[in-house]
Amino acid sequence: MSDLVIRPAAQTRYDAVSLGEVMLRLDPGEGRIRTARSFRVWEGGGEYNVARGLRRAFGLRTAVVTALADNEVGRLVEDCILAGGVDPSFIRWMPYDGVGRTVRNGLNFTERGFGVRGAVGVSDRGHTAAAQLGPRDVDWDHLFGELGVRWLHTGGIYAALSDTSAQTVLAAVQAARRHGTVVSYDLNYRPSLWKAVGGQARAQEVNREVAPYVDVMIGNEEDFTAALGFAVDGVDANLSELEIDSFATMIGRVAEAYPNFRVIATTLRTVRSATVNDWGAIAWSPSTGVVQATHRERLEILDRVGGGDSFASGLVYGLLSGEPLATAVELGAAHGALAMTTPGDTSMATLAEVRKLAAGGGARVDR
Description:
This protein is α/β, with parallel strands linked by helices and 367 residues long.
């Protein structure tokens, strides 16, 4: 990918590292949170999901920078991370007070939704260890310099957790830039995370401070509007109503404001029901202009959570592998589509499955 300068794998310990909170997801399966009597547990988090996808689906060397309260719930999250193959060496373990008055682990109760009943997420993540991870709690120069990292991924969900986490994101992207590590950032605007700390104004303040250090910016139209302040003329906030050329016009304005962006990418989703979505993606770089992935109408979905994160990991894999942007965005869209056919936040797809779908393969039985 000529628009990005990526460190050679032989010079680094890790292909990719994610910075963000890893929560314990409690999944009631086909039922409702309010009537559940049992839950299946997964680990998940907007930034972490990308590192896990890069490891499990694409076979890259990944790690996560995060913090957990040192109790049995934290150790369960760690066990899930280990099962996902992501290096947990950079977890900061914080002493637990026995109650959770000062530090705790984040929980995320998530219903998948079905038909006319949309997916529902209820986060319980106040005062978490990850929200208290400070910019000086990680030796960034050791990580990016001595050990070496080709790619850092982080995003607006983690930046929204606290003033401390916003400062930690800024420290990480600045250090990555110093050491020649490519930085991707998913704006991932969540009104519920920002509403008590200043809303859109605060989101824009934080994200505009981070943006000059980002190489690959990911986000949908709402993200760019709410989190960076760019609007699309004559179009409402529903991306399903957005014409590609209108979005391309906005991308041009974003790229003009932030000439450091070497790639801008977004998923395109029309929600027909909780279990049927139209799904696609577009991306831009200075050398290619706008490229578009295969648009999959009426994609059947089992669990939509993490689809955007899996798009990001497929895109990052393609770019790290030296694929053209058009191929990378196809890999991202295919990986996101496959991830939404299985339960949990994280991908269960294989590289062969992703490449087959990206190349136009279908759902016939493999024997």
